[in-house]
Amino acid sequence: MPKDDQILVRIRCLKGIQDAFVLEESDRFRLLEVETEAEKKAFMGLGMCYNSGIREVLRCPLVVVAITNMDFDWGCQAHILLKKGEEIVGEEVRDPTQIQELEKDENVWFLHKNFVIYKDKVDFPSDIVTKKCCFELPALTREQSAPGFQKLTNYIYCSPSTAGDVFLKKKYYQDMDEWGTGTVLLGFKEG
After folding, report:
1. CA-CA distance, 70 to 84, in Å (whole number)?
2. Residue 175 and which of 19, 74, 89, 126 are 20 to 30 A apart at CA?
3. Quick check: 176 pLDDT over 70?
4. Are 134 and 83 in contact (CB under 8 A)?
C-alpha cells in the first residue's frame, strides 16, 4: 500500500475523524487565495488575522484534509494567538485547570470564555484598532498535537479559517457543511 494511502487509513481510524483526503496540488494555491482573502476581513469583528499555520502546512510535500466531527478532541494547546510583533499578548486557553487559574489573575481579561488578553502586554482594544496586534492561527507540532494525532509521525497541523473550512468541505466533502463538522490540515514532512 502506498505511503499516502497508509497515512489516510491511519487518520480515518482516529476518534472524531469522519474522513480524510490528500489535498490536490492545484487546491494548495486556491486554499491560500481563500485564506488570504479571509485575512483581509476582521477576525471575530475585532482585528486582522494571519494564518501562518496554513502557510507552513502547505509547504509540506503531503497535505491531508481531515473532516472532524464533535467527537474530535482538539486538545489543550492554543489554536489562536493574539500577537503584538512577536510577543504573545493573548491566546486561546483550552485547559480547564489553566482557565480556573487565569480567572483569579488580575492581569488577565477574558475576551471569550476561553480566550485571554494579558493586560500588561497590550493596550486593549486600542492596539487592535490601530493594527499593532494581529490574531494568528499557528501550525502545531506533534508535541502539541490533539489526542490521537500522537500516533502519527513527522507532521505539523493547523486549522483553516471559516472560509477555508467551507472551501475544503465543498471540494472534498460533497459540499456538505453539516453542523458539528470541521476541518484540520496535516502536513507531512519528508522522511
Report:
1. 32
2. 74
3. no
4. yes
pLDDT at 77: 80
57-107 tens-digit pLDDT: 999 999 999 999 999 887 778 889 999 999 999 999 988 999 999 999 999
Task: Assess whether 150 and 182 both reside in one domain.
Answer: yes
CA distance 92 to 159: 13
pTM: 0.85
CATH, residue 148: 3.40.109.10
| 164 shares a domain with 130 | no
Q: Are residues 67 and 144 in the same domain?
A: yes
d(CA 160, CA 170): 14
Query: Could you write out the DSSP letters of every residue in the chain?
Result: --HHHHHHHHHHTSTTEEEEEEPPHHHHHHHHHHHHHHHTSPBTTTB-EE-HHHHHHHTSSEEEEEEE-TT----SS-S-EEEETTEEEEEE---HHHHHHHHT-TTEEEEETTEEEEGGG--TTHHHHTTS-EEE---EEGGGPPTTGGGS-SEEEE---HHHHHHHHHHHSTT---TT-EEEEEEEPP-
Given a contact cutoff of 8 angstroms between Cβ atoms, the answer to whether 92 and 114 are in contact is yes
CA distance 31 to 45: 22
